């Protein structure tokens, strides 16, 4: 009976997401005047401040924010919280630095995807196609991590099988993304972000109560693991890890394609400013709050990591089980499941736009052929469905250590896109040669150094990827043909 009670809130939430997407799809058919492509991929540029903030927060805050990250905080202590503070800047950097310019440019050139901007800025179909392939590869890795994380926490908390959880929310998120498009994803993302915050609050109260209160938990940590109170956590949180994480999940997130595309969908400047304010507050509360709960979990899960399966991914599911009653546990795991599905839906839609809009329809355009709107709609939705099902199938045999998979994908996307976006928007001399060398060189160097375990000064390989990407962008832009004045006038 207890297991069934846990399922009730989850079922209600998932079918609410599905119902909203169906409703939006029906309204889109009746009201949209901008055509299927603009509506399906950027919501006809009509997002208000609150929805823009929440969909960007939900896209950024993946399941690792609720499982892997807090699990690390349980192991390391307050040092992990101090590191996570940098995540407060993530949304401000994306919307505040790139937001307005990307929106203005996309309207000028009638761009619908981030690849439209890359293609136009650098006048290169080859670069746009490379961008699309890189996006799909790393997005797929991230989506697998989200499916696995959500299904694992479902299994650990409810007692039902991993596959049951995967079937429940995996298939529903694929269906509602296919049906709802960008607007549906944005609105359901906003609800997911609210669900994440609610789940965090419920869990915080439960952990404090189960641990005997904040004072009792802190006394326990001070007695048995005093190093957790130190910034360096007795050597477990070295300066190199601080710097690496500040770069990886903070500063360099400015160029993530899944966040940049949100810059193209807001309604007006007022909406952008509201989104920056609301989103910064929410993303700070969410990421710092969940890692704080991870530290407090030491007051409940007091054994060595070996007692919990030697994986930090097990810590938060066990914390939920040990601190909450069944119905509250069911409500709480909506948070990490919402984080999982909101990230998947956003990445899935962007991956579809890369295949359909940026590769297939561009090839038709070059051959002076057009695709009727009904066929465009059918192909876009079919592609969303197929990509989702492929990722779902790959998630059936789950990999371990979710946060590492997620961070690998973050690093790959950042190495490929950050300088291409930033210098393309703010440096007149950036050109096609520099962008191609930067994207390929940054991605390859990052992946190779990750595979071989090569580090510089014990810093994460993102430092190598970003340095190579920047150097190649500058060199390539110096030796390559300058961008045409006609193109540059749209940007400067």
Q: Determine the strand fraction and express it as a percent band.
A: under 5%
Helix content percent band? over 70%
Amino-to-carboxy terminus distance: 64 Å
Average residue-wise pLDDT? 84
| Uncertain stretches of 5 or more adjacent residues | none
State the helix count.
Answer: 21
Envelope shape: globular
Q: What class do helices, strands and sheet pairing give?
A: mainly alpha
Report on the architecture of this protein.
The protein has 492 residues and is mainly alpha-helical. Helix content is 75%, strand content 0%. The protein contains 21 helices and no strands. Helix 7 (114-122) packs antiparallel against helix 8. The relative contact order is 0.19. The mean pLDDT is 84.
Note the topology.
Elements lengths: L1 H30 L4 H7 L6 H12 L7 H9 L1 H7 L4 H20 L5 H9 L2 H34 L3 H49 L3 H11 L14 H10 L8 H4 L8 H28 L18 H9 L2 H7 L1 H33 L6 H22 L7 H25 L5 H21 L9 H18 L5 H4 L4
Helix pairs in contact: 1-9, 1-15, 2-9, 3-9, 3-13, 3-16, 4-5, 4-13, 5-13, 6-13, 7-8, 8-9, 8-14, 8-16, 8-18, 8-19, 9-13, 9-14, 9-15, 9-16, 9-17, 16-17, 18-19, 18-20, 19-20
Short description:
By secondary structure, this protein is an all-alpha fold. It has helices spanning about 1-30, 35-40, 50-60, 70-75, 80-85, 90-110, 115-120, 125-160, 160-210, 215-225, 240-250, 255-260, 270-295, 315-325, 325-330, 335-365, 375-395, 400-425, 430-450, 460-480, 485-490. The longest helix is centred in the middle third of the chain and has 49 residues, at about 160-210.
């Amino acid at each position: 009976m207890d297991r069934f009670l846990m399922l009730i809130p989850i079922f209600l939430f998932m079918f609410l997401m599905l119902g909203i997407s169906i409703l939006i799809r029906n309204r889109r058919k009746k009201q949209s005047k901008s055509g299927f492509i603009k509506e399906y991929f950027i919501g006809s540029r009509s997002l208000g401040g609150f929805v823009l903030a929440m969909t960007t927060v939900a896209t950024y805050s993946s399941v690792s924010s609720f499982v892997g990250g807090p699990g690390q905080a349980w192991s390391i202590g307050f040092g992990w919280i101090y590191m996570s503070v940098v995540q407060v800047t993530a949304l401000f950097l994306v919307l505040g630095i790139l937001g307005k310019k990307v929106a203005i440019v996309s309207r000028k050139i009638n761009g619908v995807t981030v690849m439209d901007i890359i293609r136009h800025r650098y006048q290169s179909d080859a670069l746009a196609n490379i961008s699309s392939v890189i996006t799909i590869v790393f997005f797929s890795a991230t989506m697998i991590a989200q499916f696995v994380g959500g299904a694992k926490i479902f299994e650990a908390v409810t007692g039902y099988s991993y596959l049951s959880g995967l079937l429940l929310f995996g298939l529903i998120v694929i269906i509602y993304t296919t049906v709802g498009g960008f607007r549906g994803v944005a609105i359901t993302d906003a609800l997911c972000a609210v669900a994440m915050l609610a789940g965090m609050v419920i869990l915080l109260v439960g952990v404090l109560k189960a641990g005997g209160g904040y004072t009792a938990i802190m006394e326990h940590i001070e007695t048995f693991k005093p190093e957790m109170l130190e910034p360096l956590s007795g050597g477990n949180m070295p300066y190199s890890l601080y710097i690496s994480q500040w770069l990886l999940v903070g500063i360099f997130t400015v160029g993530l394609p899944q966040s940049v595309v949100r810059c193209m969908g807001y309604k007006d400047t007022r909406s952008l400013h509201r989104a920056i304010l609301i989103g910064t507050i929410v993303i700070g509360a969410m990421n710092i709050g969940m890692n704080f709960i991870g530290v407090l979990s030491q007051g409940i899960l007091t054994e060595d990591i070996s007692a919990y399966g030697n994986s930090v991914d097990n810590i938060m599911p066990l914390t939920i089980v040990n601190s909450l009653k069944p119905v509250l546990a069911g409500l709480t795991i909506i948070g990490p499941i919402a984080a999982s599905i909101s990230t998947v839906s956003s990445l899935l839609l962007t991956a579809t736009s890369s295949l359909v809009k940026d590769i297939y329809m561009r090839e038709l355009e070059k051959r002076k052929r057009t695709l009727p709107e009904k066929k465009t709609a059918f192909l876009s939705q079919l592609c969303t469905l197929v990509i989702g099902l492929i990722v779902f199938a790959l998630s059936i045999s789950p990999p371990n250590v979710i946060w590492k998979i997620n961070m690998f994908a973050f690093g790959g996307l950042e190495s490929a896109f950050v300088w291409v976006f930033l210098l393309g928007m703010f440096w007149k001399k950036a050109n096609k040669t520099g962008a191609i060398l930067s994207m390929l060189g940054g991605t390859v160097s990052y992946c190779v150094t990750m595979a071989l375990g090569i580090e510089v000064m014990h810093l994460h390989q993102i430092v190598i990827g970003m340095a190579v990407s920047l150097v190649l962008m500058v060199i390539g832009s110096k030796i390559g043909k300058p961008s045409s004045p006609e193109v540059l006038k749209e940007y400067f």
